């Protein structure tokens, strides 16, 4: 039997693409195991879908000052030895890494043990963890054509991002029922990335009464971000993080406000959902969401609102503009070809897997 180790963690964007590969890998006869950090959000997500999970020690590699910078190098070193031990035990034919800090020691240990490694970069330019991993990888999959030029020749493979098949099986009726909504008023869904977004949450809540005049609102606001004052408000439902029901909530949404994380936007495009993107700014990231959002705006898929331009007025305008012109957004999205990221990655794994 062929064995594969999947790794990735930190935020859901480094986990859901791995989850998307699972059914196809199982069909191909792979025995799948997962390596993540001991207590990251990936642990719960992966255990929930029934994969064997191996936690290793992990530290964040920060570019900025933090007291933890002095203890984390030791955790990363320990992570390397944990990863080596786990890989020796699991003996995979191939490793697939979706990125995030926990994956660096896994990829390096795999290289040391001569296990072929495929890594995947969802964003336009490689993040720090993937940059450190690229020299140890056999192939580097990417989501955007623009990324290929940032990768070593001979390693880059343009695959797109794997999207969970189940997201295409949502039911509008089930979504409305879950929220106790009617079918006679449009639904606005707000999703702030896998960790939520305080800036987006505040902008929505500051405008709640105006927005509720025309829309019913599903607000996925991130862990610990529920607002108790709004609990039970008619036409408004809030969730911290949504797992199995996400497909139904997407199905009943007429307009979506989202961060511009690479996976989230690929899902919106594949599901043909008219959307407003509020990318994470340069103060909190290397600016990849800004590039993601600009690319989607250029292609006519999205309306982009920069975080510093979000006001009560601009947000309301954007929602109405996208809702009124939803047909033209859907039309533009219909021009995009759906590639086959899952099929391409599984084929690559088959080709590289150590015999
Ligand atoms: C703050 C941060 O570092 N953001 C990065 C992170 O975002 P983040 O982790 O938010 O990643 P994405 O937006 O790419 O993906 C989020 C994933 O979580 C899922 N989801 C989200 C909420 C929920 O309740 N349920 C659920 O299932 C979404 O459907 C999606 O599959 O990784 C992305 C991909 O490398 C980057 O583009 C982002 O810049």
In short:
The protein has 355 residues and is of the alpha/beta class.
Give a quick set of tags describing it.
alpha/beta, 355 residues, Rossmann fold, globular, binds uridine-diphosphate-N-acetylglucosamine
Shape: globular
Poorly predicted parts:
none
The fraction of residues assigned to DSSP E strands is 15-25%
- Biggest sheet, in brief? 7 strands, parallel
Number of strands: 13
SSE order, one letter for each helix or strand? EHEHEHEHEHEEHEHHEEHEHEHEHHH
Q: What is the overall pLDDT average?
A: 94
CA-based gyration radius:
21 Å
CATH architecture of the largest domain: 3-Layer(aba) Sandwich
Compute the number of structural domains.
Answer: 2
Task: Give, in spatial order, the strands making up the sheet with the most strands.
Answer: 3-2-1-4-5-6-7
Which small compounds were modeled alongside the protein? Answer: uridine-diphosphate-N-acetylglucosamine
Structure notes:
- With 355 residues, the chain is an alpha/beta fold.
- The chain has two domains: 176 residues, Glycogen Phosphorylase B (Rossmann fold); 170 residues, Glycogen Phosphorylase B (Rossmann fold), CATH 3.40.50.
- It is 39% helix and 16% strand.
- The protein contains 14 helices and 13 strands.
- The chain has a seven-stranded parallel sheet with strand order 3-2-1-4-5-6-7, with helices on both faces. Strands 10-9-8-11-12-13 form a six-stranded parallel sheet, with helices on both faces.
- Strand 5, helix 5 and strand 6 form a beta-alpha-beta unit.
- The chain is globular.
- The protein binds uridine-diphosphate-N-acetylglucosamine.
- The site of uridine-diphosphate-N-acetylglucosamine has 23 residues, from helix 10 and helix 11.
